[in-house]
Amino acid sequence: MAIVNVKDSEFGQTVKEGVVLVDFWAPWCGPCKMIAPVLEELNGKVGDAITIAKVNVDDNPETAGQYGVMSIPTLKLFKDGVEVGTQVGFKPLPELEAWVQAQL
């Protein structure tokens, strides 16, 4: 599945079903730029098993505030609408893949 950009208004619907990895990021954030290709590679490995959603915190402060995002990148994992994990900062592919696989 493609990586999707999500706005405040559609966030709840996006995380409602299945396993969703949400990347809270901003275009000016260096570590966010570093993790983007890792998420692309993860997307290629897990395919349709999960959805990867990106939330730009500058454009969507409501969702970022609701989930207490204080630093970026913050990755949150949701399973059927329930938050099941959080990672803050850059993480290498093997670590992210193991984290996601634990929820499948």
Explain what you see.
The chain has 104 residues and is an alpha/beta fold. Helices cover 36% and strands 28% of the residues. Strands 1-3-2-4-5 form a five-stranded mixed sheet. Residues 1-104 form the Thioredoxin domain. Pfam families: Thioredoxin. Keywords: Disulfide bond, Electron transport, Redox-active center, Transport. Belongs to the thioredoxin family. It comes from Paenibacillus filicis.
Could you estimate the helical fraction of the residues in percent? Answer: 25-40%
Shape: globular
The SSE string, one letter per element, is: EHEHEHEEH
Strand ordering within the main sheet: 1-3-2-4-5
- Largest sheet entry: 5 strands, mixed
Average pLDDT across residues?
95
Broad structural category:
alpha/beta
| Number of helices in the DSSP assignment | 4
Which residues sit in consecutive blocks of at least 5 with pLDDT less than 50? Answer: none
